[in-house]
Specification:
Low-confidence stretches: 1-9, 168-174, 261-281, 507-511, 528-536
Mean pLDDT: 79
Shape: globular
Strand content: 15-25%
Number of helices: 13
Structural class: alpha+beta
């Protein structure tokens, strides 16, 4: 690489604009796929063919852009390899979207008459064919929408990265440079910027309560306040609690927060153990245990307790008025009750059977239990949605609750279904996680996870009869979400690391941590099935 090269000498504004247009076009086609009427028949054929041709055209346009960028001076910019690799993978993803629509066309039953002419029950046969095809068609269009959304995201973020890397920075600006913070201060300011934060007194000490449960220390709060990044009304007695807001200067500091990026990725020896499970160019086993990493799929990430700021209990107390029925020191046990007493949430890490979490509802009775290694984000997805399910709509605009059916969520996440003697089993794309729905007069859900039947990788979740589908759907929606979760490397179960996509926020110009992770996911999706170890 030429050390004297400066990114200001490269003008790629036209290509950046084209990539942004591609991102918009991919997103527009995604919207059409989401809203597409999948009723089988001739109408679907006529409406789906233009979508199929457009998906092919977008893949071809993206391939042309990758070719052009690969022959441009942009290749000299540090970090351009990761950008080009992400776009290269997106070509395959766009082709998968076109293939999904093509498979829908192939599965769509058409009008016509069998050999020998119309039969007595021709209409009944046609209705049966249409009923059987309907869920298959819906699944294909959901997969197409998922692949198109990923293409749109990659094009958008790569365009942003290229523009950032190749735009000269003015020598003088009207405003002074925003204050620089350390990592803990940035995390605290981000949590406070979400709104709903309060400065309170608990046990005669100042306490900062945030909407998402992120822990903000008094030291971080005072340092941010001293820098003029926060506002709270000092005239309000502290015992009554003060609302905390982030000032304009605070939002500017967040807008200029340094972006985590990655060094060039070296190609691993495919014959070496753990090849492919690399993070920012370094094998997992060469990272320090305390390194923060992004992990997907989520079911492989481990519990995350002590490794993430996600709080499954705090928001219920601080924002929804749930009361503590029982609490032991040092976090050994906590039992919370809803304001009306309908629901109890019990966290007990001392249980010998390993079932650390229990959610119980009375009248009608139902119960959900989760073992030790269940990802805490999946549990928090339920606990933070419980107030809405009980009619408390405060913060409903910030706490999403899915209204989709379990089958819809599972299919959209690429999970496969199999009918069994006892009911239905859904299996994750990598084969490590299953969701079994037992039929009969008392249907129940049982989730099971394990990698190579290895110690410390397994977890389970059980939902008894009468558990509302919204509860199980909320849990499934978290598991199928392809966005990574944050962990310290040492918190990811050792035997699960070879099966997970793991990336580490390090430094390489212009490309954010989540887009690098998305590129790694694209590579996994484009690989032939069977390249990752399968579950026994």
């Amino acid at each position: 690489m030429n050390d004297s090269f400066t990114v200001e000498h490269v003008d790629l504004s036209a290509r950046v604009a084209y990539l942004r247009q591609l991102a918009a076009d991919f997103d527009d086609l995604r919207s059409q796929a989401v809203d597409f009427d999948t009723a089988p028949g001739t109408a679907l054929l006529r409406a789906a063919i233009p979508l199929y041709l457009r998906a092919q055209s977008l893949a071809a346009r993206l391939a042309a852009q990758v070719t052009g960028l690969d022959a441009s001076p942009y290749t000299q910019v540090p970090g351009s390899r990761e950008s080009l690799d992400a776009l290269r993978g997106a070509i395959g993803t766009a082709a998968l979207a076109a293939s999904d629509i093509a498979q829908a066309l192939a599965a769509n039953p058409l009008q016509g008459t069998r050999w020998g002419g119309p039969r007595e029950h021709e209409a009944r046969f046609r209705d049966h064919d249409h009923a059987a095809a309907a869920p298959v068609l819906t699944e294909h269009f959901q997969k197409a929408a998922h692949h198109l959304e990923l293409c749109s995201t990659i094009c958008h973020y790569v365009a942003h990265g290229i523009a950032k890397d190749t735009t000269a920075v003015p020598e003088a600006t009207a405003l002074p440079a925003p204050v620089k913070l350390n990592a803990e201060q940035y995390e605290a300011l981000t949590a406070l910027a979400h709104g709903g934060a309060r400065l309170e007194v608990r046990d005669r000490r100042a306490h900062i309560a945030t909407l998402d449960g992120t822990q903000v220390t008094t030291h971080s709060f005072r340092s941010l306040d001293a820098l003029g990044l926060l506002h709270h009304d000092a005239s309000v007695p502290l015992r009554r609690g003060r609302d905390i807001t982030v000032t304009a200067e605070g939002h500017r500091a967040l807008a200029h927060r340094p972006q985590p990026v990655f060094p060039p990725v070296s190609r691993p020896d495919p014959t070496s153990p753990g090849a492919g499970r690399r993070t920012g160019g370094r094998p997992v086993n060469r990272l320090p245990p305390e390194e923060l990493v992004l992990v997907s799929p989520r079911h492989l990430a481990g519990s995350g307790l002590g490794s993430t700021a996600v709080d499954a209990l705090g928001p219920l107390i601080h924002h929804f008025g749930w009361t503590t029925v029982e609490q032991l020191p040092d976090g050994r046990r906590a039992v919370l009750a809803s304001p009306g007493g309908e629901v109890l949430v019990d966290f007990d890490p001392l249980r010998q059977d390993g079932l650390w979490w229990t959610i119980s509802h009375h009248e009608p009775f139902w119960q959900a239990q989760f073992s030790r290694q269940t990802p805490v984000e999946a549990i928090a997805a339920i606990t933070q949605a419980l107030p809405q399910m009980l009619g408390d709509d405060r913060y409903a605009d910030r706490i999403p609750v899915t209204d989709q059916a379990m089958a819809t969520i599972a299919r959209a996440g690429g999970w496969t279904v199999q009918d069994t003697a006892h009911g239905t089993t859904w299996t994750s794309p990598d084969g490590h996680c299953t969701a079994e729905h037992t039929g009969g007069p008392e249907p129940v859900w049982h989730f099971e996870h394990s990698v190579l039947d290895g110690f410390n990788t397994g977890w389970s979740a059980d939902f008894t009869v009468d558990t509302p589908e919204r509860v199980t759907a909320q849990f499934m929606a978290h598991l199928t979400d392809d966005r990574p979760v944050l962990r310290h490397l040492q918190a990811v179960p050792f035997l699960a690391r070879h099966a997970a996509v793991i990336t580490a926020p390090q430094s390489a110009a212009g490309l954010g941590a989540h887009i690098v992770h998305a590129a790694a996911q694209v590579g996994r999706a484009a690989s032939p099935r069977g390249t990752s170890p399968s579950r026994r």
